[in-house]
Sequence to fold (174 residues):
Amino acid sequence: MKFSIVVAVDRNLGIGKDNNLPWRLPGDMKFFKSLTSNSAEGKRNAVIMGRKTWESLPPKSRPLPNRLNVVVSTQNSYELPEGCKLASSLSDALKICESELAIDQTFVIGGAELYKNSISDSSLDRLYLTEVYGSYDCDKFFPAYADRFKLISMSDTQFENGIEYSFKIFEPKS
Ligand SMILES: NC(=O)c1ccc[n+]([C@@H]2O[C@H](COP(=O)([O-])OP(=O)(O)OC[C@H]3O[C@@H](n4cnc5c(N)ncnc54)[C@H](OP(=O)(O)O)[C@@H]3O)[C@@H](O)[C@H]2O)c1
Fold:
């Protein structure tokens, strides 16, 4: 099953600190919501995330609405709300998405551990990367990707909360 990665990184590929995002960028959150929610008529998208990213979501925001939420964990009795799926690995998560009816696109949405598994997977076909033009004190990082991907498109620079950033789309080099 083909899938995309969605991530926001700083200049050092930092993505998180203390199981949270290092910045507050409502425009990026809006982009994330729209990208991962908009699906073909009669279908919905799936979002795959690591257990720690799931726990980092504010309780009132999870599960992410209108999307199949798949949480990856080695804990086979980890409790999730009804409608969410528990997967034991990335490939198990992709199989779940494939076997569910009416799934349009599948997105891996973090965190660092899951990105590390996903970035070299042969089914990865797109990387939606928000580049934040700053350096933050992060404790979680996205893997080095630049050599393996080609830039397909890039937005104008956005400016919000004193932070500059842009939306980029990459595809794996063949
Ligand atoms: N900037 C961004 O775009 C972005 C996006 C998402 C998250 N984040 C940040 O990333 C950080 C969280 O990343 P993280 O690396 O600590 O955690 P994570 O990848 O979200 O979750 C790690 C957990 O997921 C499970 N897991 C991951 N890969 C697995 C595999 N292949 N097989 C089985 N289980 C697997 C394990 O759960 P068990 O321990 O239960 O076995 C593991 O402890 C937070 O700071 C968050 O805010 C940033």
